[in-house]
Give the backbone structure.
Amino acid sequence: MNKNLSLAFALAAAALQSGGMVSALSAQAKATPQVDSSASAAKAKPVFENGQAQIVPEFADPTQWIQEVLWVESEFDSDGDGKKDRIFVSVTRQKQTATEGLKVPVIYESSPYYSGIAPSKSYFWNVKHPIGAEPASRSAAPSISYTPAKNSLPSEHARTWVPRGFAVVHSEAPGTGLSQGCSPMGAPHEALAPKAVINWLNGKATGYKTADGFDTVTADWTTGNVGMTGTSYNGTLALAAATTGVEGLKAIIPVAPLTSYYHYYRSFGLVRSPGGYLGEDIDVLYDAVNSGDPAKRDLCNSIIRDGQIKAGIDRVKGDYNDFWQGRDYLNGVKNIKAAVLMAHAFNDWNVMPEHSVRIYDALKETNVPRRIYFHQGGHGGPPPLEHMNRWFTRYLYDVENSVEKDPKSWVIRENVRANTPTPYAEYPNPDAQDVEFFIAKGGNKNGELSLTKQKAQGTEKFTDDVSISATMLAQADSSENRLMYVSPVLKNDLHLSGWSNIKLSIASNAPTANLSVYLVIVGRGSVITRGWADPQNYKSLRESEPLKSGKFYDMSFYLQPDDQIIPAGSRIALMVFSSDKDFTLWPPAGTELTLDLDKVSLKLPVVGGKKAVEAAFKAE
């Protein structure tokens, strides 16, 4: 998997986490010499310049690092064997933590991917059916090989942070690799596992030399200050740990984290896949990471996949329910004490940008230090090292570098080289205002998108055909399979920043239908933002009802948040169609949908507000 939270999530993670194994230790590094307490001994210590931890030569030789593995006892028993689950942990630290009494803070990452994932997509759901229909059973996933002993876990962080005076800790998520228990898929022990590791680092949980033994291991080499990071699923686990409010977790940098399993696998009542992983769902993700002890896999399957997930997933209707509510980390934001630096990409169609933005928006109601970093690429992509270094240095070493006074939002602008973000006071841009746009008939070719509201326009129709991709529909001069409404040519750049919202009234000649809405740049076919919804959920995400033929249903839903400068010379288009080949289910072609033109309203967050739009639309 290349994306860390679904099978979508994971493939990215596997690639992102493949930084290689930490170098083997020399015999000298494995030994634990006595601390030299003489006054003349020069002890290595962290160095800070310009508010950042610097590489210390004495810390920089990987052959001198101390590496150890252990199991930390958690507070839960997810497999019901009567014993608290133990979490497999790998530590990499400077030799000076043993020879010179050095105490360092920790950069920590947890992951379900360190022991591999189930290959191929053969066990994904078949999407060739309409919403509301019972899907065919999916195939069993290939078994993941099991390695019963390890000396370390993969790490991309040790080479960056150990030379700068931080220890690096990794752990395997429950039910994966050498960690005990069952893979939780958002259940409470997904957050409690990293909490246990953080508690061990602070002397509040017990570490053991073996999975089942009684010989203990202490973390007497650390200050107890912990920062977590990771991409995709690994970033999710950093956020999950923070929502427990665990003491000692001082800062997190989640990169493209999945913050709600519902928002990842559904969209406003619609069964929707993450980009690139059509037919994936939360049970597929479970199978993808089920790499724990083979002797426990059948038991865990019965508890998690065939128990909790099967009872709550509702792949037929796609409605929101208590199962999904319990797997939304927005509910735990009030518990967060750690300083939060979110990172996401506006063109991440796997873990979509709403995942970070919804958490960041909620953090505005707390006193937690916060910042958000964006780029214009796809899945993954951490902030520049300088930003991460200043964040961790401030909150793990308590170095007064004024990072909390920096601008809150940083965006890599279009056509700008990486690692040169533009600062803004906040996200969305404080100068952004919602501007309401309306449409005028002609959508099977090119209707109008403007600031003027028309009256008594009637309706326009389009026919569902999933075999035609969204790109093909956007580039077609005319089509019976979509409606397109196009703005005038922009005379000036137009800067969008924030959430877009669509209101419309739609009818169907079938009891179910997919609904997809895109905002695109005409000609290029490039996507500005997009969204999906199920008209059956027009009243509530928790309740859907079959559509009555010919009846109009009023709907309102948001499109993915964005921050994009649309260049002068472009035309913006609103495109409305039904099934999205890359994201939704694939019903048989032929469903006819009808749009009430007078009831369509599109609100876009424009920097400069209505005046900026009027200037961009003005005649020559």
